[in-house]
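Researcher: Good morning. I'm working through a list of sequences from a screen, and I'd like to move beyond sequence-only analysis. For each chain I'm collecting a predicted structure so we can compare shapes side by side. This is the next one on the list. No need for commentary yet; just the structure.
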Amino acid sequence: MEPKHRTITGIVLAVLAFGASTVAFYHMVMDLSSPYPGAVGVLPEDRARPPADTVYVGVISRYPSSVIYRGYQPLLDYLSAETGRYFALRLGGSYEETVAQLVDGRVAAAFLGSYLYVQAHAEHGVVCVVMPLNEDGTPWARSALITGDGSDIRSVEGLRGRRLALPPELSFSAQWLLTSALAEAGLDASDLGSLRHLPHHQAAVYEVLRGNADAAVVRDRVAREFRGRGIRVVATSGPIPGAPIVVPAVHDSALVAELKGALLGIDVRDPGFTALAAGWDPEFAHGFTEARDADYDGLRLMLGLGRR
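Model: Good morning. Structure tokens for this chain:
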């Protein structure tokens, strides 16, 4: 990290102390042992009266609220400890609502999906700031077609006549399957037995586990979460840039500089990082890199989207 920043090791105790009451509270009011169905989320402002200058960060409803708070709020607690500002989550009830919150100023930044970022950039000029690295230290992610362990589905072609569960329509996972993967397999949506969009990625997995769907498409991070729990990965998308943290077209440049400095300054080689990131969502456990709009041109090409 830059000399002006405290080292990760030095702030671990501060972050843990800052977040301990939050984590304890969430575990008390929510059953976090199962990622879906999740309890109704307790908004950050419900846990304590927030300071007037709270920096609210939006997050799309890709996971149940309990999963989001468990994995995302500790990262914001790190930002609070590192910058001296107070960061808190503000969840949206849908992907579209989070974009609206960003555009109308209810949140200063937001976690968006890769596909949703491309859409929001074209329509509203939102700016990508950073994106997470994976376990290989590269900024790539994939989507996965999954089925039950005992299923005879072995490829995308095997979806003909089958029941498919998908996450929300504005997720890259859903768009990849419907726009790219089916076409490459010589199929379209009408060849499926049924198609349902679920509220969250975990919900789509549970539909397979409960026997209500023959297959599902989810983020690879979610597929890894359920590894060894009754599912099998059949196919994956090509690599795409990770889901970015974004800010509005008109934003506070000082805040963005602090946010980037804190996240890009993370050194995963620091011994203190393991303890610091223990409660973070696995997607954030390998640090971050700077994001640029041009990084998403490959995704635009994959889904047949023009750059605007």
